[in-house]
Structure to design on (190 residues):
C-alpha cells in the first residue's frame, strides 16, 4: 500500500515534525484507474449510482413476478404469497436509494471539500460490506452441499473485497480533507 505523507508545520515546531499518514494516495482497482484520490472518488460515486440502479432494476423485476429462485438473488427464499418478497424488496430499494443519495453527497463533498458529506457513504458502505460477508456465510452454511454455491459465495466475497478497497479509497480522501481542514492555531499570550 502506498501512503501519502503530509507534514504538519507550525511556527514553534521544526519543519520535519510527525508525519500524518493516509492509507492510499491513488485509486488503482480492476475497474477504476486514477492517479488521484479525488478523481477516483468521483468514479466510485458513479459506480455506486450505476450499481445501485442495476440492483434496483433486478429487485423490481423480481417483485413483478420475475425469477428470484437463483441462489445468488438478493430475494432468494422470499415469496410473493406471504409478502416477504415485497417487504424485503422495498427495504432493499429504500436502502439503495439512500446509497444513491449518499453518492450524490460524496460528489458534492469532492466539489466543495467538506469531509462530513463523505460520512453517509462510508456508513452505508460498511453496511453493504457487512451484509455481503454475512450473506456469504449464510450461503455456505445453508447450502454447502451444492458446489456451485461455494463458487457464488467466493464471487460475492471477491466483490466484497472490491468494496473494501473502495471504502479505503474514500476513507483516504476523508483523511486528506481532515488534514487540509485541520486548523493550525497558535495562541499568542503576552
Amino acid at each position: 500500500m502506498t501512503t501519502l505523507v503530509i507534514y504538519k508545520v507550525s511556527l514553534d515546531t521544526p519543519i520535519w515534525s510527525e508525519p500524518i499518514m493516509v492509507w492510499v494516495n491513488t485509486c488503482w482497482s480492476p475497474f477504476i484507474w486514477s492517479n488521484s484520490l479525488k478523481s477516483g472518488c468521483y468514479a466510485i460515486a458513479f459506480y455506486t449510482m450505476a450499481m445501485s440502479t442495476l440492483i434496483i432494476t433486478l429487485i423490481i423485476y423480481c417483485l413483478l413476478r420475475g425469477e428470484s429462485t437463483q441462489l445468488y438473488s438478493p430475494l432468494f427464499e422470499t415469496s410473493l404469497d406471504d409478502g416477504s418478497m415485497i417487504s424485503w424488496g422495498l427495504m432493499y430499494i429504500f436502502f439503495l436509494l439512500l446509497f444513491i443519495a449518499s453518492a450524490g453527497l460524496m460528489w458534492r463533498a469532492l466539489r466543495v471539500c467538506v469531509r462530513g458529506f463523505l460520512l453517509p457513504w462510508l456508513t452505508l458502505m460498511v453496511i453493504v460490506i457487512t451484509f455481503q460477508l454475512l450473506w456469504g456465510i449464510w450461503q455456505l452454511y445453508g447450502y454447502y452441499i451444492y458446489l456451485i454455491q461455494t463458487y457464488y459465495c467466493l464471487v460475492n466475497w471477491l466483490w466484497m473485497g472490491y468494496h473494501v478497497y473502495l471504502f479505503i479509497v474514500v476513507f483516504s480522501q476523508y483523511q486528506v480533507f481532515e488534514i487540509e481542514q485541520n486548523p493550525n492555531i497558535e495562541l499568542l499570550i503576552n
In short: Helices lie at 37-63, 84-112, 119-142, 147-181. The longest strand covers residues 4-7.
